[in-house]
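Q: I have 158 residues here and want to know how they pack in 3D. Can you give me a structure?
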Amino acid sequence: MGLFAATAARSSPRLLLAGALARVRAQARSLSASAQPAMPLGASWRAEYLSAPAVVFHKTHCSLCRDLVERLEDALDAKSVREVALDKLPNRGDALREVLRNETGQQHVPFVFIGGVHVKTEDAVSGLRRAAGGQPDECALAPKLRAAGAVVTGQFRS
């Protein structure tokens, strides 16, 4: 800063403020340029996220989601269930939720997939209840889960 600018800055609060504002704007531009852009999902999301026999896309604050995941975890081995918290995915959660909405036609979490096929939330919740007259550990979704490669280890809660 030259002698004239230093003198002007001391004598004029507006010039001092304008200079500080210009520095802040320049820093903000450099930070936004270096920020990691949202990753495009394309068709690769299926291979990346639908690797387990049962996959539940949810939000951490959703009580229905927690109940559904707990029911699956109670009945299946750990490798058979994958939960994906959309609100915990940096730069991807909102984009993935939009892809799920467009693909399934469902507007809310949880998004449930068994064997890579979408199951409506209502069907998943009611299907995890014990089937009437079935085995003690049997539920309406058990055959689909087994066909998808899930290992049933416990009982489905009613």
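Q: Anything worth noting?
A: The domain at 44-147 is CATH 3.40.30.10 (Glutaredoxin). The chain has two domains: 3-34, 44-147.
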